[in-house]
Specification:
Helices cover 8% and strands 32% of the residues. With 65 residues, it is mainly beta.
Length: 65
């Protein structure tokens, strides 16, 4: 028997590993990469787009400008 839910898999922007997503995901949610141990924020749901979570950014570089 097939489920109506599709399995959603994202690619880690840092290491390109596969990240399994929960069945319901919304912009503003966070995903964690098990390979490189970084967190990413869901920016868009369709298409699925991930971006660096705020704490992953190098704030010392941002603070200089």
């Amino acid at each position: 028997m097939m489920s109506d839910e599709q399995i959603v898999v994202a690619r880690c922007p840092a290491c390109r590993a596969r990240i399994s997503c929960p069945p319901v995901i919304m912009p503003g949610d966070f995903l964690y990469c098990q390979e490189c141990h970084r967190r990413f924020e869901v920016v868009s749901q369709n298409p699925l787009v991930l971006d660096w979570a705020a704490e992953e950014l190098n704030t010392s570089y941002i603070d200089r400008y």
